[in-house]
Amino acid sequence: MSLDGTHICKEIANLHDNILSVEIVEKGIAIAAHIKSGTLPKLERLFAQTELYMSALQANAEHLGRPHYLTAHNDSTDLFFFPIVVNGRKMILVVRASVPYTHEDIGNYDRYIYPEMIPKVWEIINVHRLAEGRKRE
After folding, report:
1. Residues 67, 132: contact at Cβ < 8 Å?
2. Range of 28's domain?
3. 99 touches 32 (CB < 8 A)
4. pTM for the full model?
5. I need a labelling partner for 56 at 20 to 30 A (CA). Which of 27, 45, 65, 97 fits?
């Protein structure tokens, strides 16, 4: 399978207005990306650390189950990290989303982007056959 990473990133970025960018990362470096506008800070160190942590979770899948995604909720941007596999190489797909609420709204957290976004991201990952061991639905 050849990977048109930029197309996949753009497809996911178009799922919701609050998605700022989508990147496919290998060894801490974005190898494909789609940024809706402007530039975003490079997060290579964070990406490399996340890949290491994802690898540790995958190594413990027998005890914990297979990891589906990791999330980091920050003041202005949330990050979602999805494990993917391209031609046998483990990578992560990173979705950066602007936080659409203030911290006072946290009680209404579930009514925003996340419940609708995550299954749609997995659907695209599955269509492009990037999910190792994940059943296609």
Report:
1. no
2. 5-127
3. no
4. 0.81
5. 97
